[in-house]
Q: What sequence folds into this?
């Protein structure tokens, strides 16, 4: 049997090791949520984050029929050049001038214009130019017209098979001006054609065209 002194010691130990009451535990948890305003994100929280967007891809393509686009109104951000297009793969290759004579008929003259859509996606729009004999082509001409309109208006470009060319539709709302990336046109070209530049007849695409592979 326990002595009176031993009973008192056991009573003290049980008191010291008692678990906190449920009310006390809930109070500690709730105290973390008293200042709700400090937990809210501000409306301009993105501006408070010190980050910069790295441009890693610049597609070469025409605008889709469902997007409104703008074209950079600066001669430094466009260029007439030669493009070799693999239509089956939907791939565009920039062709070195030294290969134009050897690959006559496989490439086409285009005007690359710097373009951006409402989501801020930057791409190069390859506008086909009239051929070497100056023959008229409504698709090429209406494409150039659409790009010219897009220098000052948000437009949507839609192919019209009955018309035999492109139709341009201006946005009805007063949309904000685009925010253009701080890259030079040379940098955009390097990113766009990083793995799509042909400067030798030994290039796999050239061998494919010549039936050598």
A:
């Amino acid at each position: 049997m326990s002595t009176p002194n031993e009973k008192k010691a056991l009573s003290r130990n049980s008191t010291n090791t008692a678990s906190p009451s449920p009310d006390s535990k809930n109070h500690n948890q709730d105290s973390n949520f008293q200042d709700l305003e400090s937990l809210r994100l501000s409306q301009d929280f993105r501006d408070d984050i010190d980050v910069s967007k790295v441009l890693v891809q610049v597609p070469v393509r025409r605008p889709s029929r469902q997007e409104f686009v703008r074209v950079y109104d600066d001669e430094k951000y466009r260029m007439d050049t030669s493009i070799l297009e693999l239509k089956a793969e939907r791939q565009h290759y920039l062709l070195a001038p030294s290969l134009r004579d050897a690959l006559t008929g496989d490439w086409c003259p285009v005007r690359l214009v710097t373009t951006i859509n409402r989501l801020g996606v930057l791409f190069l729009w390859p506008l086909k130019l009239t051929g070497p004999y100056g023959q008229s082509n409504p698709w090429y001409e209406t494409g150039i017209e659409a790009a010219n309109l897009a220098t000052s208006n948000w437009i949507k470009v839609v192919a019209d098979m009955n018309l035999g060319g492109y139709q341009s539709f201006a946005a009805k709302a007063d949309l904000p001006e685009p925010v253009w990336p701080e890259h030079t046109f040379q940098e955009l070209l390097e990113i766009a054609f990083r793995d799509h530049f042909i400067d030798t007849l030994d290039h796999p695409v050239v061998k494919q065209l010549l039936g050598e592979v």
Notes: The mean pLDDT is 84. The CA atoms of residues 26 and 90 lie 62 Å apart.
